[in-house]
Amino acid sequence: MRRHRHDDDEANVDMTPMLDIVFIMLIFFIVTTSFTKEDALDMTRPSNNNTENTESKKAPVAIEVSDIGEVVFDGRVIMPSQVSANIETRMAENPETVVIIQAHDQANTEVVMAVIDGVRDGGFKTPVLARLPEKQ
């Protein structure tokens, strides 16, 4: 006896219920998504007028604290208590001044903290701390 193969016996998978679920999930995610407007960066470029004069005012303020406790502000030795007045003067000239405190590895912590406090009392809130490079 010969067996006949019928084409009707093939298994068919109905995809309709799966497509229904996919569309329901798609609608759910679209409805529950919150869209936020991203803020763009303000890209204002400085003008070329008086570039030499503005570059000198935008130069960062460097305060060095040596290993023996000397505080050097823009090339001159000052007391830690004088940092506040010097920062106030510099901030009055240019409010966008950046302050960099460079401390030696062996610097006295009290002196470094007094300089940081003086910078903050002078009107600058977030000084940049850096390590003083080794002299060769």
TrEMBL record:
GO cellular component entries: plasma membrane
GO MF annotation, one: transmembrane transporter activity
Transmembrane annotation, as ranges: 15-35
Domain of life: Bacteria
Membrane association type: Single-pass membrane protein; Single-pass type II membrane protein
Major localization class: membrane
Any one GO biological process: protein transport
Keyword tags: Cell membrane, Membrane, Protein transport, Transmembrane, Transmembrane helix, Transport
Compartments in which it is found: Cell membrane
Family of the protein in this entry: Belongs to the ExbD/TolR family.
PANTHER family (alphabetical): BIOPOLYMER TRANSPORT PROTEIN EXBD2 (PTHR30558:SF13), EXBD MEMBRANE COMPONENT OF PMF-DRIVEN MACROMOLECULE IMPORT SYSTEM (PTHR30558)
Protein known as: Biopolymer transporter ExbD
